[in-house]
Amino acid sequence: MTRSKVDTSSVDALADAVLTASRLLVAVSARSIAASGDTITLPQFRALVVLQSRGPMKLTTLAEHLGVNPSTATRTVDRLLALEMVARQPNPATRREVVIELSESGRKLVRDVTRRRRAAIRKIVERMPEDQRQGLVDALTAFTAAGGEPPVNSSELGWV
User: Where's the HTH marR-type domain (predicted)?
Assistant: First the structure.
């Protein structure tokens, strides 16, 4: 089997475009979190989103999904516990382990912040030429699938 030659200039241009877009998306996220009035950081919010999208999990699994050391995940979870955004529960499979899950206030925060993010992103997309929107959907769907990120489930967030 022969591999097709990768056009590095094209890959670099795509990487630059994604980096630029990610700056915009981080800014949208930061504004949406700040509007919530809660004093959580972007990394803490990311932990909440991982738990919302993937369900309760062991601390080590959460650390893997966040791409951080278990000690960093522990500090994040401890702060979220203090804010009552998550809860520790015995693992129903082993009882010797605990799993981290979203609390009702954590679910509400993720839902509210995600709604604000969605509204802000929608305004940006509305300013795009209509004939380019489907290409963006296709490209971002492929990009997130390649990165292993599960799609947003609107019904879990109460939008449908």
Answer: 11-145
